[in-house]
Amino acid sequence: MIFNSIVLFICAMVGGLMVYGLDKKKGINIKLILIFGGSYLFSITIIHILPELYQSEASGMSIGLFVLLGFFFQNFLEYFTSGVEHGHMHAHKHSHTSVAGYSLMIALCLHAFLEGTFLAYPNIFHDHGSKSGSLLIGVVLHKIPAALALMSVLTCQFDNKKFQIFLLVLFSLASPFGLIAGSYIKTIGFMEDAGLLLLFAFVGGNFLHISTTIFIESSPEHNWNLKRLLVSIGGAAVAVLAEMYV
Predict the structure, then answer these.
(1) pLDDT higher than 90, residue 97
(2) How far is residue 64's CA from residue 205's CA, in Å, rounded to a whole number?
(3) Helix (H) or strand (E) holding 31
(4) What is the mean pLDDT of the chain?
(5) Rounded distance, CA 28 to CA 166, Å?
(6) Which of 65, 179, 217, 241 is surrounded by the fewest CB atoms within 10 Å?
């Protein structure tokens, strides 16, 4: 748990601090990273998370409903985040108020906290020896560009660099706190297995929304692009290998 918490914190900090050395006019590499991360996250959701959920004793209808709730809740969060959690960049000044900036932080920290709780239960309800490594990689690949995009917004909304970094630290701590909280809940038995299952179905719906949105936004003109296709296939292949061997 300590190792995962440190990794989550560092990757978010590094991703966010990258904004100070980024030429935002050259965003193609960031877009390819997002596509790779989105493909990985989507693949892990399909080959790890959903099979685990549907192999549980809960009804398929209940699981499906909470996956849908998670999907549309993520859509609701985008009203406050403007898509920052899947790397949507803001390169120019906007008319956002500081209240909007704080709403953005609250929404993204909630999302990151839920991601962290998920990592506390790598097997969900099946003790078949799988580890949290593949899920951790997926969260990291998603969090680095998300933190970068978040800081691109914060640098537009707040002029004080120290305050920007302070908000980045808060965001970076959200997932580790979620991981710690999830582990504590598991230890004390605060929530029944059925409740945890539905919570994870909800987070699985979040992941589906984020990953599919990345694919849609990566090609808004819907033109076929070989490089994007190869990067997507690469992300899926790494997800399969990570699930098999990590």
Answers:
(1) no
(2) 9
(3) helix 28-44
(4) 77
(5) 28
(6) 241
